[in-house]
Amino acid sequence: MFASLSDRLTATFRSLRGKGRLTEDDINTTVAEIRRALLEADVALPVVREFTAAVRERALSAEVSAALNPGQQIVKIVNAELVEILGGQARDLHFAKRPPTVILLAGLQGAGKTTLAGKLGKWLRDQGHTPLLVASDLQRPNAVTQLQVVGERAGVPVWAPEPGNGVGDPVEVARSGLAHARDKQYSVVVVDTAGRLGVDAELMAQAANIRDAVDPDEILFVLDAMIGQDAVTTAQAFADGVGFTGVVLSKLDGDARGGAALSVAKVTGQPVLFASTGEKLTDFERFHADRMASRILDMGDILTLIEQAERTFDAEQAERMAAKVTGEEDFTLQDFLDQMQQLKKMGSMKKMLGMLPGMGQMREALENFDERDIDRVEAIVHSMTPAERTNPKILNGSRRSRIARGSGTTVAEVNSLMERFDAAKTMMRQMARSGGKGVPGMGAL
Ligand code: GDP
């Protein structure tokens, strides 16, 4: 997601590299480039205007920081403004003082509401809540079954209309679902509603009726990030028709331009609370404006990476990985291998690698990434002696050909692995220099 926006912006910043000081002309040219990049990515025009005006003003009056070169200063300013349009600090879901908390999902058909209900249900359950999903989407023939399937997968019960009892009345299903939740002491109720292919009055009225029947604590507007320019008008229509308290961006894993989704928080004044990044239940995360901005600027997303690592491995492993990233510990070939194996365990390799700083430039390579590559790396590292693993400098020609023979690979493959290891090590060092937080990847500017 946002790949082309990210590429355009980083190219703009690269062109500032090596400049000692930014003239007003430099700033104007840069701002014009940023404007073009945002418009091309479908960011809504009013948002682009406000964004570029703010960047220009801040760049012109930039408090000169001795620590940053001009390119880095612009990145810092653009980053801050991106965080701002993405809705600033993340807030938590509002939970009712007296349970059950009611969360209503609204959005167009196909936006990803039903899928989200399952993801949200699982997420809530993992946090210790006892959620109930309510199937109030009676428009689509399969919607109820679909919710039952995701509910089962997520391990979360589903309240669905009894055949012959209330069928056809989504408001009644929502109301009885809530009564059931109160009765059985569920702590959160997630109500899935019907969507249409386009915004229409009947759909809005139905969603509003369900809203009035269950008095939700949160209304989450689910927005397909791939719908382009329509995102803003759709969001506006839902804001006027039903109202919402938060946005969920779905299909952020797609490769569409996605900029319209970036405009939604700004245009509607409601924060993006969650991001959906795939069809699996686990392809779901809290949305953090600062992390998304840093991903767009190709500064990586170390925090999300570490959080996902924490979810996948035990705390000790995650801590070790964090220690490597922050430079407290040396990064060895064994770590490189561990890291690759861990990434493999973590699921979608491309997605994870995309979160590492500086990876934007390697996007093409990533597209062609072959997970079997990890098996080759494994074979090569396993063919090394412990001494070779801790001190790869001793790998001369004869050692390399022995390793190639032992691992069923070629010397060229061994050489290429060593080059990649050196690159990873350099990257780790750069990240360590920036404190493991802040602005990794900016060392490349
Ligand atoms: P609803 O009509 O709003 O309930 O939408 P669904 O939940 O049925 O989703 C519509 C389609 O989008 C389904 O095929 C989902 O598997 C798919 N989908 C939902 N969320 C995501 C996502 O985050 N990424 C991708 N790639 N597909 C998604």
From TrEMBL:
It is found in: Cytoplasm. It catalyses: GTP + H2O = GDP + phosphate + H(+). Residues 435-445 have a biased composition (Gly residues). Transmembrane segments: none annotated. GTP binds at residues 107-114, 192-196, 250-253. Its EC number is 3.6.5.4. Residues 271-284 form the SRP54-type proteins GTP-binding domain. It is an enzyme of class 3 (hydrolase). Keywords: Cytoplasm, GTP-binding, Hydrolase, Nucleotide-binding, Ribonucleoprotein, RNA-binding, Signal recognition particle. It comes from the Bacteria. Part of the signal recognition particle protein translocation system, which is composed of SRP and FtsY. Belongs to the GTP-binding SRP family. SRP54 subfamily. Involved in targeting and insertion of nascent membrane proteins into the cytoplasmic membrane. Binds to the hydrophobic signal sequence of the ribosome-nascent chain (RNC) as it emerges from the ribosomes. The SRP-RNC complex is then targeted to the cytoplasmic membrane where it interacts with the SRP receptor FtsY. Composed of three domains: the N-terminal N domain, which is responsible for interactions with the ribosome, the central G domain, which binds GTP, and the C-terminal M domain, which binds the RNA and the signal sequence of the RNC. This is Signal recognition particle protein. It comes from Georgenia faecalis. The chain holds residues 1 to 445 of 524 of the full protein.
